[in-house]
Write a structure and sequence with these properties.
The complex is a heterodimer of chains A (about 800) and B (about 325). Chain A has 20 helices and 39 strands. Chain A is of the alpha+beta class and about 800 residues long. In chain A, the strands form 10 sheets. In chain A, strands 27-30-31-35-34-33-32 form a 7-stranded mixed beta sheet, sandwiched between helices. The N and C termini of chain A lie far apart (about 90 Å). Chain B is built from 11 helices and 9 strands. The longest helix of chain B is centred in the first third of the chain and has 40 residues. Classes of the chains: A alpha+beta (about 800), B alpha+beta (about 325). Chains A and B meet through helix 2, helix 7, helix 10, helix 12 and helix 13 of A and helix 5, strand 1, strand 2, strand 5 and helix 8 of B.
Chain lengths: ~800, ~325
């Protein structure tokens, strides 16, 4: 929402400095996003008459213009616009002028031709957003006169404000003025245009629960016009009036056009400009129809039929559903989408002399749904969505008629049709003084609370130490005690609420898993690896390209197709990361990642099976490097019986891959990236890879962390080499040896040998076994006894044969 | 005889000092001081001497032996030192030529920021809570007081996930659903922070990411006020950014808090940094989680941390944070 200081001041009873207004906006939750000082820096800009236009000899996109700035002298200016003709009056920024934007106008050459100043667009002199051409001035203006004087420009300030969904009142100049007046402590003068018609019907209150239905009024010439609210749940109020004798040739005055332009709306025609002006000023979207184009002079509000179509003002055919609210005419033909956009058929045009005016309140949810479904946002829908003030319809109609009379010579028929549908119940709210202070941390008295609320229209009636507060009609967002408490806080001022410290005794800290995750991060860094955080989105086919199951959970509305699938593993992202580096001759990179992956939802659950994985990718390294990473990871987490089991694993090298297990349960994969996958990614080096379900590791059984007594007696070391079939896991052999006897302190595989004299299909595994007792030095006999059991165990379990 | 002894001893001492190797010294040791040495021979000749002469010759012999033994020891020490030096020279390494095959590894900027922030809050007595990144409508919106057609839903451009009913499953648009999960699972008092990755369906550019991170703070207890919210943000600001930093609150709107505010931080140089949103937990949100809003009240605040992390290191394009390029990752 944009607002001008001059417009605001029409509703303030005392002048307020722009700085104070801007500060109030910030403090009130409608912060200033941009402030523009208008009408300043126009001193050197004068009215000039175009004497001659001719092509620039060296440029197509600029022309040479001779202008007379009132002294009868022709001065040449280069200009990039072509919208003016000889004899037109245009604004000329003379040499030495500093433009509102700060640009200094100097004599300079453009493509070899002198330019003695600059002709200005509306935007360049701060009159609006129009930058399509040079501003052509009214022919009555004298050449040489200051433009500011001719245009009646007085210095003003334009603010662009951020307006939150809970501030329907801030979508109008009047609403902003009311809020600012309350904050800075000046009086607010509500608009009171002379009543242009006799209102029929009761005054609107929030509790209005009309049943809708039809009403007609007889016009002066005996004809009649009417309103039929057939969908009272969607239309809480519908006010209609008839204006006669609109001068089709009338144009809106400069001041009005300037205000519209400043607030970002393009002046179009007098009627449309008045309509927009009333909406901006009072927050009431409204619609003038060409009375002659509305069959039976009747406006009807009903739900659309399924598939019903109409052409909106922007010449687009819209297809509706029964959720949508339509305005139809007396023959029930659609002439507008309620609260969103009018139709093309009953649009006012250059020949319109009689106008049927709509001032309505449409249900915010209904308008929101329709506008969202059609992808059609308008200034009107933005206001209806937040909740328009249902009581302002009369005032807005009066204002419209007043302006139409002044600008277009229109007269208003002295009757009004006002049909009530369903307006939400707005019972008064009990606001407890103690509750206000308990939530805000303040010490406000009941009286002070009432004083803060009164200027913004929240009428507080004392009930004991509390208040029964009537919520104003312009605050559709507010309905409960907490809403009112927020208003108290807003107008008391957040900065006036003293800081307080939390005093309850409490203990904080990380959970075990959180501490362990940090430990894993440090460990992976200790391996010299860098953490990478690629996006969790994959392209369709990227899972397949990484050798994985191609099915991943898809996004309904991805930003781009390349980011439309949720990863089921960290592997594709990290392979892509290696490929990225490889393509830049950054070889042998080592990366790690801890991140979430998304597997299909388990039966009976909507959300996916979301897991936290850790992965390590080691370019230029072979599979054992990844296995070592797994081993230190398992060691760090003290996992019980960590293991790997050779297997063919999707995405990994067919003969250099294994599943990773903890206590017999699979928790991940390890090995080398499949050469086919590497080929697809143009990676020309081996890539070792480890990916483990970190959550599963956190939950997995752990080794005991109880102290194992260190012996003071010498140990006995024996080496045992077995011939073992290739299919037997070396880890299993090692573990069997280690579990043979309590005297076994440690077992370490120190050599693997294949080839003669070891038979084909077998290999030699050599283990260093350290035996030790805590209470004595082992005797030779004890060592020999354990040794023979170690051998027997391996032979029995694995068909191993001790090598001589 | 004594003269002979002295002559022999002087000669022997000269040879010992001239020994070039430990082997040669050992040979000399045996030759000059062993059983077959000339000095030992003198001892055998002493049998025929009178008592006085014996004493003199014996004294001279002992003196000579001690002198030579000392000479051997000195020379051995010298030769040992030379040998060690030679060995050391053979082992010489130029340590300026050493380069580590790997470095100390690198934590991602965002991870560093999350850990630092967690540490600050843990120090203030908070726990850390986590939740899923793919969320249902209840946790991401409905329980947080976003009505089905509430305009506020438009404030957060949402990625919808092809699961469940249409628009039922989303990539969480904020870390606030973790608030709901914490309050559903735990009775007050609650003092928790919730860091995590969040998603917005917005075109990315140098200052906006579709995938980024937030940290949210939730307190629910008896007697919690807006003043506690302000005081806690102020304490956090000073703990994380430094004593010279201040904060301010400006009214704002979020469906799940009321009153709501934006909080800005003031740098020591007086300029402002718009950081995040906050407010008192809306009574509807407490009620949605089975907490009686008349008995308990709470506050929440949250902010994006990617920009904080990037700014700290002068990274001007936030998209770099997702870069897999080792030239980026190894800088931190």
């Amino acid at each position: 929402m944009k607002v001008l200081s001059s417009w605001l001041h029409e509703f303030l009873d005392a002048p307020v400095e722009p700085e104070a207004i801007a500060a109030a906006f910030d403090d009130l939750g409608t912060p200033v996003e941009e402030e523009t000082r208008l009408g300043e820096g126009l001193d050197g800009i004068v009215v000039a008459r175009v004497l001659d236009l001719r092509p620039h000899p060296n440029a197509d996109k600029i022309q040479l213009v001779d202008v007379d700035a009132g002294d009868g002298e022709a001065r040449q200016v280069c200009c990039g616009a072509f919208n003016m003709a000889v004899g037109d009056l245009v604004p000329l920024a003379t040499l030495g002028t500093t433009m509102p934007g700060g640009m200094a106008i100097e004599r300079r050459k453009l493509r070899g031709e002198w330019s003695n100043g600059m002709l200005c667009s509306s935007r360049e002199i701060g009159l609006g957003d129009d930058h399509a051409g040079i501003l052509v001035l009214d022919a009555a203006a004298p050449a040489g006169a200051p433009v500011a004087e001719v245009l009646g420009i007085v210095p003003d300030v334009l603010w662009e404000l951020e307006v939150n969904p809970n501030r329907p009142d801030a979508m109008s100049v009047v609403g902003l003025a009311r809020d600012v007046a309350a904050k800075v402590g000046v009086g607010f003068c509500p608009p009171a245009p002379p009543a242009a018609a006799r209102s029929i019907g009761e005054p609107v209150t929030w509790a209005s629960g009309g049943a809708g239905g039809a009403a007609r009024a007889v016009l002066g010439d005996g004809a009649s016009f009417g309103v039929d609210v057939a969908a009272p749940d969607g239309c809480g109020r519908f006010v209609a009036r008839v204006l006669r004798g609109v001068d089709p040739a009338a144009t809106s005055p400069a001041w009005l056009q300037q205000r519209l332009s400043a607030l970002g709306m393009r002046p179009i025609s007098a009627m449309v400009d008045i309509s927009n002006y009333v909406m901006l000023e009072l927050g009431q979207p409204n619609h003038p129809y060409d009375l002659d184009a509305v069959a039976a002079a009747t406006l009807r509000v009903r739900r659309a039929g399924d598939g019903e179509t109409l052409v909106t003002l922007d010449d687009v055919t819209r297809t509706c559903t029964p959720d949508d609210l339509l305005i139809t005419d007396g023959e029930d033909r659609p002439i507008g989408i309620a609260g969103v956009m009018g139709g093309a058929s009953a649009e006012i045009g250059p020949g319109t002399t009689d106008v049927l005016l709509e001032m309505a309140w449409f249900d915010p949810t209904s308008v929101s749904r329709t506008s969202r479904r059609l992808g059609l946002r308008s200034e009107a829908s933005a206001r209806f969505e937040k909740g328009v003030d249902p009581a302002v319809a009369d005032v807005a109609a009066d204002r419209f008629c007043q302006l139409a009379a002044e600008i277009c010579g229109a007269s208003t028929e002295p009757v009004q049709v006002d049909v009530r549908g369903t307006l939400p119940e707005r019972p008064p709210v009990l606001v407890r003084t103690a509750r206000v202070n308990a939530l805000l941390g303040t010490d406000l008295t009941a009286t002070r609370i009432a004083e803060l609320l009164a200027p913004i229209g929240f009428a507080a009636e004392p009930v004991g130490d509390d208040h029964l507060v009537t919520i104003p009609t312009w605050r559709f967002d507010s309905a409960t005690e907490i809403d009112v408490i927020e208003e108290v806080g807003r107008h008391h001022g957040y900065r006036n609420i003293p800081n307080r410290q939390l005093t309850e005794p409490r203990t904080g800290g990380l959970t075990r898993a959180q501490r362990e995750r940090r430990g894993v991060r440090r460990l992976l860094c200790g391996l010299g690896l860098a953490e990478s955080q690629p996006l969790p989105f994959l392209a369709p086919g990227q899972l397949a390209a990484a050798g994985l199951d191609p099915v991943g959970i898809e996004l309904v509305n991805p930003l781009v197709a390349e980011e439309s699938v949720l990863r089921t593993a960290l592997l594709p992202g990290l392979v892509a990361a290696v490929a990225h580096n490889h393509a830049r001759r950054q070889l042998a990179v080592g990366l790690w990642e801890i991140g979430h992956v998304f597997l299909p939802a388990p039966e009976g659950q909507v959300l996916p099976d979301e897991r936290e994985h850790v992965a390590v990718v080691l370019a230029g390294r072979e599979a054992p490097a990844a296995v070592e990473a797994w081993q230190v990871l398992a060691e760090q987490l003290r996992l019980r019986a960590p293991s790997v089991a050779d297997a063919e694993v999707p995405g990994l090298h067919p003969t250099r891959a294994a599943r990773v297990l903890v206590d017999g349960a699979v928790v991940g994969i390890v090995g080398e990236i499949d050469p086919t996958v590497l080929g697809r990614h143009d990676i020309g080096e081996r890539v070792a890879y480890l990916e483990v379900d970190l959550g599963a590791c956190f939950d997995a059984p752990r080794r005991s962390d109880a102290y194992r007594q260190v012996s003071r007696f010498p140990s006995s070391d024996i080496d045992l080499a077995f011939e073992v079939p290739d299919h037997v896991s070396a880890i299993e052999v090692e573990r069997t040896l280690a579990d043979t006897d309590d005297l076994v302190w440690s077992v370490r595989l120190f050599d693997v040998y294949r080839g003669a004299p070891v038979a084909e299909g077998r290999r030699s595994l050599a283990f260093a076994v350290r035996l030790q007792a805590v209470d004595r030095t082992l005797t030779d006999a004890e060592v020999a006894e354990v040794r023979s059991r170690l051998i027997a165990g391996a032979e029995t379990a694995f068909g191993a044969a001790l090598r001589g | 005889m004594i003269d002979d002894i002295r002559r022999i001893a002087a000669d022997a001492a000269g040879r010992i000092r001239g020994a070039a190797t430990l082997d040669e010294l050992a040979t000399l040791d045996r030759e000059l001081l062993g059983k077959t040495s000339e000095l030992t021979a003198f001892k055998r000749q002493m049998g025929g001497l009178d008592h006085e002469a014996k004493r003199e010759v014996g004294g001279a012999l002992n003196g000579a032996r001690e002198e030579l033994q000392a000479a051997v020891a000195d020379r051995r020490a010298e030769l040992d030192a030379i040998a060690r030096r030679v060995q050391a020279e053979a082992e010489r390494l130029d340590l300026t030529e050493v380069r580590a095959g790997r470095d100390a590894g690198h934590l991602h900027l965002v991870t560093q920021a999350i850990e630092e922030l967690e540490d600050v809050f843990v120090g203030l007595g908070f726990t850390v809570a986590e939740g899923p990144e793919v969320e249902d409508d209840w946790h991401n919106f409905t329980a947080l007081n976003f009505g089905e057609y509430h305009p506020a839903r438009d404030m957060q451009d949402t990625f919808f996930v092809d699961l469940g009913a249409p628009r039922e499953v989303v990539l969480r648009t904020h870390t606030s659903p973790v608030q709901i999960r914490v309050m559903e699972e735990q009775a007050p008092p609650i003092y928790s922070v919730m860091p995590g990755r969040v998603y917005r369906n917005e075109a990315t550019d140098s200052t906006h990411l579709a995938v980024f991170h937030q940290l949210e703070c939730l307190v629910v207890d008896r007697g919690i006020t807006f003043g506690h919210l302000a005081g806690t943000i102020d304490m956090f600001t000073k703990a994380y950014f430094g004593a010279g930093w201040n904060m301010r609150l400006r009214p704002a709107y979020f469906p799940f808090t009321e009153p709501s505010a934006e909080f800005d931080l003031q740098r020591p140089d007086g300029t402002w940094l718009e950081l995040g949103g906050c407010g008192m937990v809306h009574p509807n949100v407490l009620a949605n989680c089975g907490i009686d809003p008349e008995e308990f009240s709470g506050f929440a605040f949250g902010f994006g941390l990617d920009r904080l992390a990037a700014t700290k290191h002068g990274v001007t394009d936030l998209r770099e944070l997702a870069s897999p390029d080792i030239r980026f990752l190894e800088q931190f």
